[in-house]
Amino acid sequence: MTWERDPHDPDDDFEDIDDADIGDDRDHAGPSVTIEVSGLSLYTRHGVSKEERELGQRLVFDVVFELYECDATVTDRVEDTVDYAEVCEQVALAAQERSYHTLERLCAAVADRLMDRFGAESVRVKAAKPEPPIPLPVDEVSVEVWKEA
């Protein structure tokens, strides 16, 4: 049983609502949901130079989904949301099935795949090179692409 206050009755502190009714309400305007996967580390073969693509390097991905409707907020069912493990698998497939010269194109390809697969309203994909092949000291370089349906 869930308790909810009746805003029209100043003497009524709470009103009881049957939890079964909540699970059946699919037409409600539920909260927006943000789902993030951070720090997915993959060995890839992307880069401007031929040597960089042949040798390969580690890239770190961060992915953010914006879901304007997510039934799992009501149903509590994994099937009604984005499966994090499947997100990681799809990022790995997109990042490792072919080689790109730029992180911009790589991020766009990952974002396209994720939007097609999961039907998100928007997706942000960030790819970072923790050890970029440049002659100056730098912690990392990264690119972030944001796409909206």
Task: Write a structural description.
- By secondary structure, this protein is an alpha+beta fold.
- The chain has one domain: 2-Layer Sandwich (GTP Cyclohydrolase I, domain 2), CATH 3.30.1130.
- 30% of the residues lie in helices and 30% in strands.
- It contains five helices and six strands.
- The chain has helices at 19-24, 50-55, 72-75, 84-96, 103-118, and strands at 2-4, 15-17, 33-44, 57-67, 122-129, 141-148.
- It is elongated and about 50 Å long.
- The two termini are 38 Å apart.
- The model is unreliable at 14-19 and 21-26 (pLDDT under 50).
Keywords:
two-stranded antiparallel ribbon; GTP Cyclohydrolase I, domain 2; four-stranded antiparallel β-sheet; alpha+beta; 5 helices; 30% helix; 149 residues
